[in-house]
Amino acid sequence: MRILVIESSPHRNGSSNLLASAFIKGAEEKGHQVTVFDAARSSIHPCLGCGKCGMDGECVQKDDMEELERLILSSQMMVLVTPLYYFGFSSQLKLTIDRWYSFTSRLSARRMKTALIVAAWDSNDWTMTDIEHHYRTLCSYMNFQNMGEMLGTGCGSVTMTRASGFERKAYEFGKSIGD
Ligand SMILES: Cc1cc2nc3c(=O)[nH]c(=O)nc-3n(C[C@H](O)[C@H](O)[C@H](O)COP(=O)(O)O)c2cc1C
Q: How much is the pLDDT for 25?
C-alpha cells in the first residue's frame, strides 16, 4: 500500500518525527511504500476562504499544495504527524489540512485510511483529549478509515521520547498496518 506521512514539526529531528520514523520503519518492513512530505519545510499558505474552488476545483493559490494534493490523491493511507501545540495540531499541519478544502469532495470519496501520530510534553490523562477528538471528527467528516492513533505523552524532547516506550509502540503500529 502507498502510505503518505505528513510531518509538521519545526524540529526536523524532534520528538514527533522520531515517532514517525519508527512507524515508517515498521511499515516498510511490512512491505508498504512510504513517502514523507514535510509540511514544516514546504511553502503552503493558509486557505483564503475565497470559495473559488467550490470545494472541488482548482485552488487560486499556486504553492507546494499542488504537489501534496497529488501525493494525497495517489496514496491509500495518510499519516498525520504533529507535535501537540496548545492541545491541537501544529499550525503547519492545520493550515495544510485547511487547504484540503479545494479537493474535499475528491478526498472524501476516496475513503482513505489514516492515522495520527502526536508528541506532547505532558502526561495528564486529558493531554490528548482535544486533538484526538478533533482528529476523529475530521475522520468522520472526510470518510477516513481511522487505522489508529499514536498519542505520545511524555514525549517532550528526543531524550524523553526515547525513554517513553512510544518509539517501540510506533514501530509496532507501523508493522501492524495491513493492506
Ligand atoms: C507552541 C508550543 C505549544 C505547545 N503546547 C503543548 C501542549 O499543549 N501540551 C503539551 O503537552 N506540550 C506542548 N508543547 C510541547 C511539545 O508538544 C513537545 O515538546 C513536543 O515534543 C514537540 O515535538 P517536536 O520535537 O516534534 O516538535 C508545546 C510546544 C510549543 C512550542
A: 98
What's the domain range around 120? 2-12+33-153
Task: Supply the CATH number for residue 116's domain.
Answer: 3.40.50.360
Q: Position of cell 509496532?
A: 172
Ligand 1 pocket, mutate which of 5, 9, 85, 130 (most atoms under 8 A from CB): 85
Kindly give, in sequence order, each residue whose CB lies less than 8 Å from that of residue 156, ignoring residues fewer than 6 positions away: 15, 119, 120, 121, 122
Task: Please check whether residue 176 lies inside any domain of the structure.
Answer: no
Pocket of ligand 1 contains residue 119 by CB under 6 Å: yes
Whole-model pTM over 0.85:
yes
For the chain, how many structural domains are there in total? 1
The pLDDT, as a whole number, for residue 179 is: 85
The closest-lying atom of ligand 1 relative to the alpha carbon of residue 158 is 25
